[in-house]
Amino acid sequence: MIRFILADLRRLWAGALVILLLVALSVGLGFAVSLQERALRLGSARAADKFDLVIGAAGSETQLVLSSVFLQPAPLPLLGGDVLAKLQADPRVEWAAPVAFGDSFMGYPIVGTTTKLIESTTSGYDGGRIFAHEGEAVVGSAVPLKPGDTVKPMHGTAEEGGHTHTELAYTVTGRLKPTGTAWDRAILVPVQAVWHIHGLGDDHDHDHEESGGDDHAHEGAGDDHDHADAGAPVQAEDDHDHDHENHGHIDAAAALNEVFDAQDPGVPAILVKPKSVAAAYKLRQEFRGNGTVGVFPGEVLTRLYATLGDAKLVLQAVSIGAQVLVAAALLLLTVVHIGQRRKQIGALRAFGAPRGAVFAIVWLELFVLMLAGIALGVAAGFGAAGVISRLAEARSGFSLPVEFAREDAVQLACVLLFAAALSVIPALMAYRQSPAQALRG
């Protein structure tokens, strides 16, 4: 029977190829949607898992998480230095690290932060060490730089008309191992360097050094323009000369000062590692009001997933509609195919083939075709999801793992059952066909 079926498929290869491709396209679309949506959920959740709590100025919680955790550029309102100092001194906080951005190099964001954040969220170095001076930098695994290379920061991006700073060129001292997060595409520098290169904090640092750490009035703390420049990507209205005048003194060999106080400049966001779950909820509640907002990245992602879920339903509806159309086309093809094989079926019956054997031949032939199309469709859907993930990873920075899950097995079982049921229709038509009528026709 199998040899007969294979011979028949070789003889009618054109029609068989059409059926195979139709099934593969419809199945591939459905699996690609399912796999890609899951990849986005898994990738974003894993990328945000390293950060328990984000504190920012009152505004969009979603944008706060996208900018601080996923490093998506956007102008954010700044928190005062007193918030960072308060969090760093809070006994419920294991560590609190500022995140300052606005500059880039070769399209990679330059992020000002602390050694504590880097040491607590990465798994080590592929080479080199952590930065120890103001003019040093550490690069993520996806940044094409190595220890000893030079980074000349550009304010904003080249596409937005940014310009290169001439006050400081960072020296790369270390390259981090992959983390699967957007930080793999980041160039990490001391936050004090980001402040100083934008003309912030110079007077405070000078007073701090002269007084041995006593508090002094920060002459530049009230300059809203300078604060926005340190935390937001680009200000289109600022020309090069004006921005250059706001730059302060840069000492590339200066030692790091990661003990902050209320006189320090503002930052767009603060990443916080609470010592316990209870502390995390208390801190979030305390910073939800009075000009600040505390968010759990997971909660923000859950809201985004709900939106993605709606989009997934639309795509699944499109996929189901395509599969219905394919099923209708397959029925039409098989009816025509059975009509063309009337004499062959009649001859089989005339030579003594039982009705059950004819039924089995027709059913198995169509089901084998559909099975091959389903296998090709699953492979095509997996490949398409992988390509989309790699393209998205190049832009977002965080990994989008394409993985099969139990629900895919359920989906595949449903498709197989539908294919088996659909194959019954032409088999019944052949089963009921009279051999005498077929031969006469």
Poorly predicted ranges: 206-246
Silhouette: elongated
The portion of residues assigned to helices is 40-55%
Element order: H for helix, E for strand: HHEHHEEHEEEEEEEHHHHEHEHHHHH
Structural class label: alpha+beta
- Number of H- or I-type helical stretches: 15
Distance linking N and C termini: 25 Å
From the alpha carbons, calculate the radius of gyration and give it in angstroms.
32 Å
Beta-strand content estimate: 5-15%
Largest pleated sheet: 12 strands, mixed
Total number of beta strands: 12
Write down the overall mean pLDDT.
78
Would you write up a description of this structure?
- The protein has 441 residues and is an alpha+beta fold.
- 54% of the residues lie in helices and 13% in strands.
- The protein is built from 15 helices and twelve strands.
- Strands 1, 2, 3, 4, 5, 6, 7, 8, 9, 10, 11 and 12 form a twelve-stranded mixed beta sheet that branches.
- Strand 7 and strand 8 (163-164) form a beta hairpin.
- The longest helix has 44 residues, at 297-340.
- The chain is elongated and about 95 Å long.
- The model is unreliable at 206-246 (pLDDT under 50).
Pick out its properties.
12-stranded mixed beta sheet; 441 residues; alpha+beta; 15 helices
Task: Give a quick precis of the structure.
The protein has helices spanning 2-11, 13-48, 61-68, 81-89, 115-121, 191-197, 202-211, 224-231, 240-245, 277-286, 297-340, 342-350, 355-396, 406-432, 435-440, and strands at residues 53-57, 93-105, 108-113, 125-128, 136-139, 150-151, 154-155, 163-164, 170-176, 187-190, 269-274, 292-295. It is an alpha+beta fold and 441 residues long.
